[in-house]
């Protein structure tokens, strides 16, 4: 696991996948993943930006999956 206190630019490219995985786990109720992600995004502005982008993408996917009402 990368050192989340480091700048993302100094980490391996896998940081993005790890952040997305933490998001999925946190959304599924994993409190350890949620706490890990919170510490990471509170200490790294780049991680926070990516986290917010992932949240927006998930919100769009959920909205697109909702059934539309037929008039």
Q: For the terminal residues, how far apart are their CA atoms?
A: 51 Å
**Tally of structural domains:** 1
The proportion of strand residues reads under 5%
Give the uncertain stretches in residue-range form. none
Series of secondary-structure elements, N-terminal to C-terminal: HHH
Concise account of the structure shown:
The chain has 71 residues and is mostly helical.
How would you describe this protein?
By secondary structure, this protein is mostly helical. It has one domain (14-63). Helices cover 68% and strands 0% of the residues. The chain has helices spanning 14-27, 31-43, 45-65. Helix 1 (14-27) crosses helix 2 (31-43), helix 1 (14-27) crosses helix 3 and helix 2 (31-43) crosses helix 3 (45-65). The longest helix has 21 residues, at 45-65.
Question: Which helices and strands, and how do they pair?
Answer:
Layout: H1 14-27, H2 31-43, H3 45-65
Helix pairs in contact: 1-2, 1-3, 2-3
Protein traits:
mainly alpha, 68% helix, 71 residues
């Amino acid at each position: 696991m990368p050192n989340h206190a480091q700048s993302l630019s100094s980490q391996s490219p896998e940081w993005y996948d790890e952040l997305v995985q933490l998001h999925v786990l946190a959304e599924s109720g994993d409190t350890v993943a949620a706490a890990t992600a919170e510490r990471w995004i509170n200490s790294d502005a780049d991680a926070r930006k990516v986290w917010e982008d992932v949240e927006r993408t998930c919100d769009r996917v959920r909205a697109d999956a909702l059934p539309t009402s037929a008039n």
